[in-house]
Amino acid sequence: MEAGAGRGALIPDAAFVEAGAVVGDPWSAEVVVKVAPPSDVEIGKLSAGQTVIGFLAPRNADNKIGALRDAGVRAFAVEAIPRISRAQVMDALSSQANVSGYKAVLVAASESTRFFPMLTTAAGTVKPATVLVLGVGVAGLQALATAKRLGGRTTGYDVRPEVADQVRSVGAQWLDLGIDAAGEGGYARELTEAEKERQQQALEDAIKGFDVVITTALVPGRPAPRLVTAGAVEGMRAGSVIVDLAGETGGNCELTTPGETVVVHDVTIASPLNLPATMPEHASELYAKNIAALLELMLVDGKLAPDFSDQVLADSCVTRVPEPEAESAAAVAD
Ligand code: NAD
């Protein structure tokens, strides 16, 4: 492992050594495991036959997949692991989305000028906050559950009708706008222009009634859908809060500034990036379990021998390079 790779998650090098790791140069290992995509400098340290695993952002326009392939490196992008039951334990998108959904509610609560729970006090009764979650995948479902635990009155909305039961299962109401945009692989498809307009108009009306709006809507490989217009923000009560988790792909709210918290029309709009990094202990623990399960799938008698007839490995492998000679060592880089 690279010295200090665990520092951000408060795991000292000594703990890795105790677990049997060697601290040194990870770039010559047979398998290099990362969180973020490798930089050009890091790719320069790799040679043909090595394997890289991590969030490789294969759908981003500036991805490094071509450079990894040209270097003869076999690369597995955790984003491309299929959403099938058997692969749940390896699903790093899900494990990190859980962290984001949870933390988004805490950000909303801390920015809010109001309580989340109902309070009955000698000085009067406080009504519970109303919380609307737009886009109820893994992050959205966790946000609904967390907001409920904090005492909020929760509502969920998505374009995949199958989500309605999941929303109700965490004690939230389902907002039905009559748009069905279920796509492939459990993801949503992009809406048509007419659907977008209809959705924005309907949401503009619905959003007015909420103290907190948390948005998590994504369409793989596309800019984030615009769900919350400037007009919708203007219609919200002063002191309301929007937490936009889609900032990395442009944001679900028209007035979002990715990575910043802005106040417009007396509404606070927060768009924190990379929320899992703000909870490094559990984010790392979950990611490590995902990676260990994926590595295990590639090992045969302790040797790296990925079987590409396995859908999980075939889908997640994003570079096709000649088979390297198998040896059994893995390294972790920061
Ligand atoms: P995601 O991050 O791609 O998108 C978040 C949500 O935004 C999705 O629910 C999507 O439907 C919604 N969305 C997209 N466009 C929208 C729009 N215009 N308006 C409103 N909502 C919109 O989703 P995700 O969290 O990666 O989850 C995708 C699916 O995969 C879910 O059905 C999830 O339950 C499923 N999943 C399955 C497994 C498994 O079985 N192994 C594991 C993880 C996730």
From TrEMBL:
Coiled coil: none
Domain Alanine dehydrogenase/pyridine nucleotide transhydrogenase N-terminal, first and last residues per copy: 1-100
Entry GO terms, CC: plasma membrane
Residue stretches making up the Alanine dehydrogenase/pyridine nucleotide transhydrogenase NAD(H)-binding domain: 109-271
Swiss-Prot/TrEMBL catalytic activity: NAD(+) + NADPH + H(+)(in) = NADH + NADP(+) + H(+)(out)
Enzyme Commission number: 7.1.1.1
A GO BP entry: NADPH regeneration
Presence of the UniProt keyword Membrane in the record: no
GO molecular function, one term: proton-translocating NAD(P)+ transhydrogenase activity
Alphabetically ordered keywords of this record: NAD, NADP, Nucleotide-binding, Translocase
Described function: The transhydrogenation between NADH and NADP is coupled to respiration and ATP hydrolysis and functions as a proton pump across the membrane.
Name listed for the protein in its UniProt record: NAD(P) transhydrogenase subunit alpha part 1
Lineage start: Bacteria, Bacillati, Actinomycetota, Actinomycetes, Mycobacteriales
